[in-house]
Request: fold
Amino acid sequence: MLKKVALANTNTGRTSLLIVDTDTDEKAVSGAGKAANELAKVSSICGLDEYVHRLTGKKGNVEDRAALFTGVSRCLERNISTVKSFELQANRVKSPRYRGIIAEVAHQISIGDKISDAMRLFPDEFGPEIIALIQAGEESGRLPEIFAEIGKSSKKTLRIIKKLKKGMIYPGIVITMGVGVVITMSYTLVPAVSKLYGDLGADLPGATIMMMKLSDMLINKPYLLMLPVAILVMIIKSWAKIMKNPSIQKIFAHTPAVGGIVRKSSAAVTFRCLSLLLESGVRISKSLKITADSAPHIYHKEFFGRVCEHIREGLGLSESFLMESHWLGDDGRNVCGVMEIASETGSATEMLDEIADDYEEELDTIANQIDKVLEPVTIVILGALVGFLIYAIYSPIFNLGQHMLPSSSNDGAPPAKVQVHH
Reply:
């Protein structure tokens, strides 16, 4: 349920409106970050209004997660109570979802629950690897360090995501304009050209016939134009679920250019998770099991799951990595080389951190260059689209002569004599 909280400042009289995703008014006030000099008025958002708010409002994201964990870490380091540490983050997050999470977690802690148990109520925002890290921090007394590491990792992920999104702006604009040109021509130029070619009875190429059929469909059934838009919106909304499908993950992993990004992003997350778990004192077999369960990609789930089985059979970490290195793709041998150094030096945590750092640096480099990589691809796509339109619309013009000029049935016969009358 969404709650609208109006906070009126008693000194200035100004009112701030905040939306909190929670179930009670008390939690809504807590999630809104009410200060001592503010008066709160809470109202519920229901029905269609709630649906619109959820559809158009800001969603919980990595940015809010990074702000939450970083802020809580700083508060815990300064011996601020756990409940207060969470409540102080209410004004740092930007989404109703995370305001509600802060309110609920603070409430659960205040009635005696552990942080890990409270955050387990939100599996969509905090995966099993984060819960496992928090549990390890609670058991070892290193919660501030664990929260700091989760916040740091989230910031790195956020930075890479922002660069990737920035690189996609130019291709997105160009392709959208291209589609807009096709739709505009389908409503304006193509109908006129279709009438001309139809009256002349000209034989038309396949591209022209395709454009004419598209134009006819959009004119007579304009509602069909919304179908691809609706499909695109559904794909975007369900993208996270789609990418969890093992078959889809395998397809993307073997797609040129995209496959490298998919593999490296998953590897960075999983190796960082394993490093943090081991550093927190979690047993190696349990750490590998948690890492396998929380790995974003099917290949890394298989890799860490099989390594865990080898460890339980008595093999060493480096040997297990080498036996299953094919799951890591082209980077498998390099990773195994690093782990061999770790087995000789006894510095597995540091080496795993180094592997994660290397993957994150590679992703950072790709994110910086993605606009340069996509620009020629976008130009090729746009050129192909323009070429198709020119061919479809104008190629029949070059064959109109035989239809517009009268053809002579006496081709090859001697010209008729002209009689001259005096």
User: Anything to note?
Assistant: The chain has 20 helices and three strands. Confidence is low (pLDDT under 50) at residues 416-422. The CA atoms of residues 202 and 259 lie 47 Å apart.
